[in-house]
Amino acid sequence: MSDITTLSFEEAMRELEATVGKLETGEATLEESIALYERGAALRAHCEARLREAEERVEKITLAANGQPAGAEPVEGL
């Protein structure tokens, strides 16, 4: 298994979905299930952190009187 911190959001989501799928089958041993659950929890936390980072980078485009983009400002409430 790769280091979670190096995964992109998309990679982490794919792995999380696969992990959940393995847990849902019920075919893993108790120890394997615990390890899968722990990995899944870490993947979920990583995905949430990546989403927060993306939200903080989202900018609202401001328009000038003529309707042309005049710049950007941070989204309020983040």
UniProtKB/TrEMBL annotation:
Cross-referenced Pfam families: Exonuc_VII_S (PF02609)
A GO molecular-function annotation: exodeoxyribonuclease VII activity
Reactions mediated catalytically: Exonucleolytic cleavage in either 5'- to 3'- or 3'- to 5'-direction to yield nucleoside 5'-phosphates
Keywords per UniProt: Cytoplasm, Exonuclease, Hydrolase, Nuclease
GO cellular component terms, A-Z: cytosol; exodeoxyribonuclease VII complex
Main location: cytoplasm
Compartments reported by the entry: Cytoplasm
A biological process from GO: DNA catabolic process
EC number annotated for this UniProt entry: 3.1.11.6
Function: Bidirectionally degrades single-stranded DNA into large acid-insoluble oligonucleotides, which are then degraded further into small acid-soluble oligonucleotides.
Subunit structure of this chain's protein: Heterooligomer composed of large and small subunits.
Family per similarity comment: Belongs to the XseB family.
Protein name as catalogued: Exodeoxyribonuclease 7 small subunit
UniProt organism field: Paracoccus liaowanqingii
Gene name as annotated: xseB
